[in-house]
Design a protein that fits this description.
The structure is a single chain. The chain is α/β, with parallel strands linked by helices. Helix content is 45%, strand content 15%. It has helices spanning 7-26, 39-42, 50-57, 66-76, 92-108, 123-132, 146-149, 180-192, and strands at 62-63, 82-87, 113-119, 139-142, 159-163, 169-174. A 6-stranded mixed β-sheet has the order 1-4-3-2-5-6, sandwiched between helices. The longest helix has 20 residues, at 7-26. It starts with 6 loop residues before the first helix and ends with a helix.
Length: 194
């Protein structure tokens, strides 16, 4: 009997092999997601501030330019508070809280600018992530976490930074939000009441 498998283990092994083939095939028939957000995420209706409108018009795009472009954007947004979410496609907690940011940006996007910073990630993976979880705001590509370090990020994923209407960094939240209410409370405290 040495080297031979009894019938019961062979059946279990065969069923396991069939199940793994079926599971592997499940994702092959789907199309690769695009980075085009839903229409409600790109709508500028009700947004009177031209810079906040521009943020919404760039929804779900990955922008280049590094720290200089990010600093320029913050300068252009003076007069409006800014919430910045640092994330990466490989980050499970980022995926968990991303829908919170999408909904809060829709809710407060006429008064608060939202920006994303995709740090230490590959562009193709980031684009795929945004195809799955689109947002009504753009994201800066930050492969070396240089942008993230400007707001005390780049050490933990995710990290969220809050700038007041004068462009001053007022608070940095390290780690994921436990729920959407915690994020909204901080938006109200550090962006709307700042």
């Amino acid at each position: 009997m040495r080297g031979r498998m009894s019938l019961k283990p062979r059946i279990v092994f065969g069923l396991a092999m069939i199940a793994s083939v079926l599971l592997a095939a499940c994702g092959e028939a789907t199309e690769r997601p695009t980075t085009q957000p839903a229409a409600n995420l790109t709508s500028t209706r009700g947004i009177s501030d031209p810079e906040l409108r521009r943020v919404r018009e760039e929804a779900n795009r990955i922008l280049d330019g590094g720290p200089a472009a990010f600093a320029q954007r913050l300068e252009e947004l003076r007069g409006s508070p800014v919430v910045v979410n640092q994330w990466a496609s490989w980050c499970g907690p980022c995926r968990f809280e991303f829908p919170f940011f999408e909904r809060q940006a829709v809710k407060y996007g006429d008064r608060v600018a939202f920006l994303g910073v995709n740090s230490r990630d590959s562009r193709s993976e980031a684009e795929e992530f945004l195809g799955e979880l689109p947002t009504p705001f753009p994201h800066y590509f930050d492969p070396e976490a240089e942008i993230a370090r400007t707001f005390k990020g780049g050490r933990a994923w995710p990290t969220t930074a809050f700038y007041d209407a004068d462009g001053k960094l007022v608070f940095t939240h390290t780690g994921a939000y436990r729920d959407e209410q915690q994020l909204e409370d901080e938006i109200r405290r550090y962006a709307l009441d700042a």
